[in-house]
Amino acid sequence: MTDRRLRIAVQKSGRLADRSAELISGAGLRILKGANELLYRIENQPIDLLRVRDDDIPTFVADGVAELGIVGYNVLAEHFPDRDLEEMIVQRLGFGSCTLKVAVPNDVDYAGPKWLEGKRIATSYPNILGKWLKDNGVTAEIVEMRGAVEVAPRMKIAHAICDLVSTGATLEANGMKATDLVLKSEAVLIKAPHAPPSELAHTYDMLLRRFDGVTASTGAKYVMMNAPKTHLDEIIRMIPGADAPTIMQLAGREDTVAVHAVCQENVFWDTLDKLKAAGASAILVLPIEKMMKGGEEPLKNNADLCLEKSERRRTQGSPGPAGKPPRCARGRDRAHHL
Ligand code: ATP
Ligand code: MG
Q: Chain centroid to CA 338: how far?
């Protein structure tokens, strides 16, 4: 027996906190909220959550205080301007997306980075901004601020700012407009430089596999439709992010096949309209709850098993499957049906 437990450093509260907790729960970990606010236990695995400010996560993970951490790429890049970040990053998590942008007052006639030459720029990201200015051959003074960066031009502290932007509403409210993109960011899973203790290696590997599965299934859809053979190639090309769709002959319909595919991205109404216009019918889009990817194999999930079942039913004379979802893919979730 061992008392050693893995640690995952997560943001205690803030923009990444809820989605980090969702990812952890999605991986089957039951979070036990205890009296200790800094450390939450995972009830069903030898894992603890180290709940800290996001600024502390890169250091905790790099120093091995936590084996894994969930943090914004922007915070990581600012923290370690000279490191190879790809060595630390296990995977991109697909949430917490934002951009670091230069912004100037609305009345500025901004014609590119050269406008910033000799000016003062307020930011909480001096390292990232410094690199970007250097790459663009601009010399400017960086004024480091911890927060409320957007008020700097009004307060005459700076001529421009470099800050995180998602909708642009904050900039607008402060009479500013975004100009250049400095960095694109999203939450990333990072790992400590050293391997986990050998007795926890199994838990660690399982965790990474499950995180990968949760991320892959977020936003992914299972799409089914009937398609005329004459337009099959065209229809397959229209299915967004589909990897190796399954094609099955429909019973008693020589000219039509059923197409089933796992789409790695959302499927919009626009796409459904186009599929329909190309001749597809009985189109179903279903959410995917879990997905386990394996090696170089095309994605397979429980629906493939259903297809095998439906293929057996077909050969026994029952109707084709695309008109209605296979039983194991159906369930409570809502499906779009055209
Ligand atoms: P902490 O108290 O943990 O230090 P914080 O105030 O520094 O929190 P938050 O505002 O909670 O940070 O943002 C955490 C991360 O969320 C950011 O570093 C960024 O990666 C991401 N993020 C996503 N959208 C935005 C946005 N519109 N503005 C700021 N950060 C965003
Ligand atoms: Mg912070």
A: 29
pLDDT at 166: 81
3-state secondary structure of 94: coil
Q: Which residues contact 48 (CB under 8 A, 6 or more apart)?
A: 5, 6, 7, 8, 39, 40, 41, 42
Q: From the CA of 14, give the closest atom in ligand 1.
A: 11
Residue among 10, 12, 15 to mutate when testing ligand 1 (max atoms within 8 A of CB) = 15
Ranges of the chain with pLDDT below 70: 1-2, 294-338
Rounded to the nearest angstrom, the distance between the alpha carbon of 231 and the centre of ligand 1 is 47
Residue 287: what are its φ and ψ, rounded to 5°? Answer: -70, 155
Nearby residues for ligand 2 (ion, Cβ within 5 Å): 54-55
Output the ligand 1 site: residues, CB below 6 A. Answer: 11, 14-16, 53-55, 72, 74-75, 96, 98, 164, 166, 185
Cα angle for residues 108, 112, 115 (degrees, 5° grid): 60
**Residue nearest atom 25 in ligand 1 by C-alpha distance:** 98
Note the pLDDT of residue 317: 36
Which DSSP category does 242 fall into? B
> Among candidates 151, 144, 105, which has minimal Cα distance to 121?
144
Its pTM stands at: 0.80
Helices (H) and strands (E) in the chain, counts: 10, 17
Cα→Cα distances 76→79, 100, 249, Å: 5, 13, 51
- Per-residue model confidence (pLDDT) at position 295: 56
- Angular region, 286: left φ>0, alpha ψ -120 to 50, beta rest: beta
**pLDDT of amino acid 167:** 85
pLDDT of residue 164: 96
> Is residue 260 classed exposed, middle or buried when 0-12, 13-18 and 19+ CB atoms within 10 A define those classes?
buried
* Cα–Cα distance measured from residue 28 to residue 45, given in angstroms and rounded to the nearest whole number: 9
Q: What is the pLDDT of residue 337?
A: 35
Phi, psi of 142 (to 5 degrees): -95, 125
